Amino acid sequence: MARQEAARLGAGEADAGGARHDPWLRRQDRPRAEGEGRGGAGAQGRLPVALRRDRQAQRREPPRRGTNFVLAGRDTTSSALTWFFWLVSGQPDVEDRIAREIRAVRASSGSTDAAAFSFDELREMHYLHAAITEAMRLYPPVAMDSHCCQNDDVLPDGTFVGKGWQVTYSAYAMARLEELWGADCEEFRPERWLDEDGVFRPESPFKYPVFHGGPRMCLGKEMAYIQMKSIAACVFERFSFRFVGGEGRPGLVFSVTLRMEGGLPMRVKKRRDSVC
Ligand code: HEM
C-alpha cells in the first residue's frame, strides 16, 4: 500500500515536498525503509486515515505538517480526558488524592493558585500521571488499531503474518486480560502504576499499546500528557465533579477514537479547600 501511495504521488512530488531534507518528514517515511527488513513489517497504521492522506500532502507542502498534529492530538486527548473525569468522579478518594498532590506541589514550588502549572510542577504530579494512565488503560482513545503487512513476516511470538494481511490489536481488550494486568484488571486503580515511593512506573508499550509501540509510536505522547495533566490539575485544584448521567457505565462509541455516548453531564462544585 505504501508503494502504491508512493507511485501515485511520484518520487518527484515527494522530494519536491522537502522530505529528503527534513528530519521530521524522514521519520514519517521511516517504516517504509524498515519494512524492507524483518520486524518493521512495512505496516501502515489506521489512525487516522486522514493523517495518512495528510502525510502525502505534507510531502507537497511541509508547512501543513501542523495539521497532522491537530488531527492526531485533538480527539485522542479529549477522549482520554472524558473517560478520566468520568472514572475519577466515581471514586472520590482518587479525586481527593489528586487534589492533595496538586496542593503539595503548589506548596513545595511556592507558586500561586492563579498561575498555570510549570513543566516541573506537572512532572512532580506522579499520582495524577498514574490516574490518567490508568484511565487510558481501561478506555484507550485508540481502542483498536490495524496495520497492513507489506511483506511476509513473523511476529515475536512466532505467529506468521503474510504479505497483505491485516493485523488488528485491541488495547481495550488487552486491558481486560487477567494474564496481563492481574485479577483486578477491570478496576480503575491508579496505584498499579506507582512504586513503593509513589513514583510513576511505566510499562512496556507492548503491554500498554495506548500510544502504539515501535517505530510508528505516537509522536505526541509527551505533549498529550502535558496537555491532559495541566487541564486536570487546573480543574481539580478548584472544583469537584459528580457524574449525573445515570447509573452504570456510559455507552461506548467505537469510532476512530473511543467516545462516550451521550456526553459527560457533571455536577460541578467548588472545592471547600480551594483558595481561589
Ligand atoms: C491521549 C492522547 C493520544 C493518544 C492515545 C495517541 C495515540 C496514538 C496512536 C495509537 C498512534 C499510532 C497510530 C498508528 O497505528 O499508526 C499515534 C500516532 C501519532 N500521534 Fe498520537 N496519540 C495521542 C495524542 C497525540 C498528540 C497530542 C499528538 C500531537 C500533538 C499526536 C501525534 C501523533 C502523530 C504525528 C502520530 C503518527 C506517528 C507516526 O506514524 O510516525 N498524538 N498516536
Automatic annotation (TrEMBL):
**Which Pfam families does this UniProt record tie to the protein?**
p450
Keyword set includes Oxidoreductase: yes
Look up the record and name the cofactor or cofactors this protein needs.
Answer: heme
MF annotations from Gene Ontology: heme binding; iron ion binding; monooxygenase activity; oxidoreductase activity, acting on paired donors, with incorporation or reduction of molecular oxygen
Record: residues binding heme = 218
GO biological process terms, alphabetically, are:
lipid metabolic process
The entry's keywords: Heme, Iron, Membrane, Metal-binding, Monooxygenase, Oxidoreductase, Transmembrane, Transmembrane helix
Q: Where is this region: Disordered?
A: 1-70
Biased composition annotated in UniProt, kind: Basic and acidic residues: 18-37, 51-64
Q: Which family does it belong to?
A: Belongs to the cytochrome P450 family.
Name of the protein in question: Cytochrome P450-dependent fatty acid hydroxylase-like protein
